[in-house]
Write a structure and sequence with these properties.
By secondary structure, the chain is an alpha/beta fold. The protein has 2 domains: 241 residues, 3-Layer(aba) Sandwich (Rossmann fold); 196 residues, Alpha-Beta Complex (Adenine-n6-DNA-methyltransferase TaqI, Chain A, domain 2). The chain has 16 helices and 20 strands. The strands form 4 sheets. Strands 3-2-1-4-5-7-6-8-9 form a 9-stranded mixed sheet, sandwiched between helices. Strands 11-15-12-19-16 form a 5-stranded mixed sheet, with no helix packed on it. Strands 10-20-17-18 form a 4-stranded antiparallel sheet. A hairpin with an 8-residue loop joins strand 8 and strand 9.
Length: 463
């Protein structure tokens, strides 16, 4: 159910108009994408060109609307002396496309799609079909996109609106390799407001529009942004591909540099492994230990820390809340705890419209005089072999993560509305020596505003 304005924008990204156009629209819905594409075709195709549209849709109710729209397209084409044929395929697209690819698929010149979003089980029939044609992926939307690319002729164009989650993370690495080996990524559009792009739906995924060209030579990528589907504040800039997919990156992460970062290369030069550091999701899943909850700390217990204990840059524990403040310390809880020490924590979840995606907190022994700490699952924890870290290093890492430049870097790197430990592992950091220097400076300050942090990081420039 793609909004008309978004469908029209997607159609505007196509640039190649041969005399015979063969369009693929998998998951066509009511046909809004095909209709917008046809209007663009009529405005740009040579005289007496033909449009052949293949629309896949298995929902009977939607097929009726789709049929009506195809009839409207046919009438428009006849009025302008163009030939049109439209086919509605009431068949499983993954099964159909996998079979056709295996048999030497018919080649399309264009594809436009807003695919379904749903996980694919490892042992499912769909997963097996996709593997047979070289596509290893975990979600229907990437399956549809990969199949569309596979069914294009050389130079064929694919425009799709999809969640951004395929751009990074280990689960999508085989898919990224498949995609980038077969097609050039030429355009990425980002909606700054996740909720307003699809204002009639409860869309919680961060969506992007991508344009791919099968078999084309990879060049610079056009990156555009708009706040919402009105495109009234549309901006565009051309980005070298080396800034989108970093040379030598085995993970093939796709960065979307919508936030200006500038020349801060030394700030992003080391992996966590280089630094001898680790980051993990908080190990305590609270409901599994409910019988050991304590509303207030008493007796033999340990602090159980949640995101609500960190608000407005301040740490408050214990605090009145529906969640517990502590856990009983015993053999059932001990294995989920970390020993007393200095740690850096970040929240896993934040709304896209919040001012900052990355917010870090430092925990020190002087704040919690207990032998162990419990970090709840909605926190990420920086540590070393499940032990605390040196104080200067912790404060330096906290300062770095709380800088505006790093928040921008992370937004370019990750489109998730949550901050995953996986993404934090894949990020780059300053050298250990630089972080320690940051930490010494931070500990010498009585208070630190955002302006103080940003000014210091800018002046240091990671050097």
């Amino acid at each position: 159910m793609t909004p008309t304005a978004i469908a029209d924008f997607m159609a505007s990204l196509f640039t190649h108009w041969p005399r015979t156009v063969r369009l693929l629209d998998p998951g066509a819905g009511v046909g809004s994408l095909t209709e917008s594409f046809a209007e663009r075709f009529l405005a740009n195709a040579p005289a007496s060109a033909s449009l052949e549209a293949h629309c896949y849709e298995i929902e009977p109710l939607l097929q009726d609307y789709l049929s009506d729209h195809l009839q409207e397209v046919e009438a428009l084409c006849k009025n302008q002396v163009h030939r049109f044929s439209g086919a509605i395929h009431n068949r499983d697209f993954i099964a159909e496309a996998s079979f056709e690819i295996g048999m030497g698929a018919p080649r399309f010149t264009h594809a436009i799609l807003n695919p379904p979003y749903k996980k694919i089980n490892t042992d499912s029939v769909h997963r097996k079909m996709l593997r047979q044609v070289g596509i290893e992926t975990v979600n229907l939307y990437t399956a549809f996109l990969g199949l569309a690319v596979a069914m294009m002729e050389e130079g064929g164009e694919v425009v799709a609106i999809v969640p951004r989650s395929f751009c990074n993370g280990p689960y999508y690495r085989p898919f990224r390799e498949f995609l980038l080996e077969r097609a050039a990524l030429t355009h990425i559009h980002v909606f700054e407001s996740r909720t307003r792009a699809f204002k009639d739906d409860e869309v919680m995924q961060e969506n992007i529009i991508v344009r791919l060209v099968r078999g084309a030579r990879q060049g610079a990528v056009m990156v555009s942004t708009s706040h919402d589907q009105s495109f009234s504040d549309l901006t565009r800039r051309e980005i070298p591909f080396v800034e989108i997919v970093k040379p030598g990156d085995a993970e093939r992460f796709i960065h979307v540099p919508t936030e200006p970062v500038g020349d801060f290369g030394l700030l992003f030069s080391h992996t966590l492994e280089d630094l001898g550091l680790e980051v993990s999701t908080g190990p305590v899943v609270d409901f599994r230990l409910k019988e050991h909850w304590l509303a207030e700390p008493k007796g033999r217990c340990i602090p159980l820390l949640y995101t609500h204990h960190f608000r407005g840059g301040r740490f408050t524990w214990p605090m009145e809340h529906k969640k517990p403040n502590a856990l009983r310390l015993n053999e059932d809880t001990r294995k989920w705890l970390m020993p007393r020490g200095c740690y850096v924590l970040t929240k896993r979840f934040s709304a896209k419209e919040e001012r900052r995606r990355l917010v870090a907190y430092v925990i020190e022994p002087k704040q919690l005089e207990h032998d162990h700490y419990g970090f709840e699952n909605h926190l990420n924890v920086f540590h070393r072999h499940k032990q605390g870290l040196p104080s200067n290093l912790v404060h330096g890492l906290g300062l770095f993560l709380n800088s505006t430049i790093v928040d921008r870097y992370f937004r370019n790197f990750s489109g998730h509305t949550q901050v995953n430990a996986t993404d934090l592992r894949a990020m780059r950091y300053p050298s250990r020596e630089t972080l320690i220097r940051f930490g010494k400076w931070a500990r010498a300050q009585h208070t630190l505003s955002q302006e103080d942090i940003d000014r210091y990081i800018k002046n240091e420039n990671g050097g």
